[in-house]
Design brief:
By secondary structure, the chain is an alpha/beta fold. The protein has a domain of 122 residues: Ribosomal Protein L4, Chain: A, CATH 3.40.1370.10. The protein is built from six helices and six strands. Strands 2-1-3-6-4-5 form a six-stranded mixed sheet. It is elongated, with a radius of gyration of 27 Å. The model has no long low-confidence stretch (mean pLDDT 90).
């Protein structure tokens, strides 16, 4: 049985919550975590890099010099790849780096990441975050009370625009909804703050 303390916004313990062992009590699978992180970063790549081939470089329309009787290697264009200002041979062109992982692999990777946070004691459960207006100071005060001073990820069960905008301009603080979590964001934070389901 996994039990964690539940805190309020002032950093005081208000109770305990039992965690599901099938999600938070696994032995983290490092190879799955690595696979999920590589997949996430590959899908984020824009792939807009592009170089000009010899057919796309400006100039080079005529033969630079005649082919015979000049004791030089034959040349058909001044834009050949081995010439200065020539085109690029086999250079990168726009492409999509994204690929898909199996659903079972994704789910296991998420469970492994959450279990790793519990084992490293980086999971913090908060009963609720109540803000009446957009106020960054309230979020900063909460993070200070919870001793979450490094990279922080705050996860909410559903969209909370007041909380999102209040935390938006704090350095190293990210917010996310529970249904949009990914392994990279979970592993990339030092404090994983999760709101208790009401």
């Amino acid at each position: 049985m996994l039990n964690v303390s539940v805190y309020n916004m002032e950093g005081k313990i208000t109770g305990e919550m039992e965690l599901e062992e099938s999600i938070f009590g696994m032995i983290p699978n490092e190879s799955l975590l690595h696979e999920a992180v590589v997949n996430h970063l590959a899908n984020k790549r824009s792939g807009t890099h592009s170089t000009l081939t010899r057919g796309e470089v400006r100039g080079g329309g005529r033969k630079p010099y005649k082919q015979n009787k000049i004791d030089r290697s034959r040349a058909g264009s001044i834009r050949m790849p081995h010439w200065r200002h020539g085109g690029i041979a086999f250079g990168p062109k726009p492409r999509d780096y994204g690929y898909r992982l199996n659903k079972k692999v994704k789910r296991l990777a998420i469970k492994s990441a959450l279990s790793a946070k519990v084992q490293d004691k980086e999971l913090i459960v908060v009963d609720r975050i109540k803000l009446d207006s957009y106020r960054t100071k309230s979020i900063v005060a909460m993070l200070t009370a919870l001793h979450a001073n490094k990279k922080v990820l705050i996860v909410t069960p559903e969209a909370d625009h007041i909380m999102y905008k209040s935390a938006n301009n704090i350095p190293d603080v990210q917010t996310a909804e529970a249904n949009s979590l990914n392994v990279y964001d979970i592993l990339n934070c030092d404090a994983f703050i999760m709101l208790r389901m009401q």
